[in-house]
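thought: fold this chain, then report.
action: predict
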Amino acid sequence: MDTEKFDIPFESFGAMPSQTRTKLAKRYLATREEPECHPTIEPEMRALLRCVNLWGVGFDVCAGTNSIAEIIGRLTRLQMDSADVDVSREGAVDFVTDGLALKLRPNAYDFLVFSPPFDLTDVFIAWALQQPVKIRCFHVAGDYYTNAPDYRRRLLRPHLQEGLGLFIEGLPTVEGRPCRRCMWIVLFADRKTKRRALKKKNVVNIAHSI
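observation:
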């Protein structure tokens, strides 16, 4: 299979082995089966906001029910735009698109907050690392990093080695998701952003060892 035929910028996903890229592309663009994903609930959002100060305008690339933008807007008054990637039609989003084909313009957004379908987490994080924003917040499965294959660790290693990563673990379980306790992975663009964003008094451990 020639992955270059897909409308997904695989050239930026160098940390992923080709068989993984092919599998994820095939699932995303061909099967259109609904992936495992769940709305991000308010207690999970409050856990993020207790540790991280957000500012400016945000973007959710895979909004689903649009709960993230709605909760952030209600709790912080910050504006968030959102895009739907054909996972759900339950929430009002700004536009429907292939989110992985988007490239954000410089200075258009200050932060990303999103909860990708669990089996597409790697490609959405790889996409996010290419975008010109200061703060990237990913709502992922609780074992996303502890059970990570090597390519995933390489994907996050530059931020973690520089002390620019934050893991927020122990999020509450959700009805219908009893075995999927989730976590937040937050990546800061630089130390200045981290100093401004990190609410140190609420943070115990910045990240796992790499």
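thought: worth noting. The beta strands are 57-60, 79-84, 95-96, 111-114, 135-141, 165-168, 182-188.
final: tokens above.
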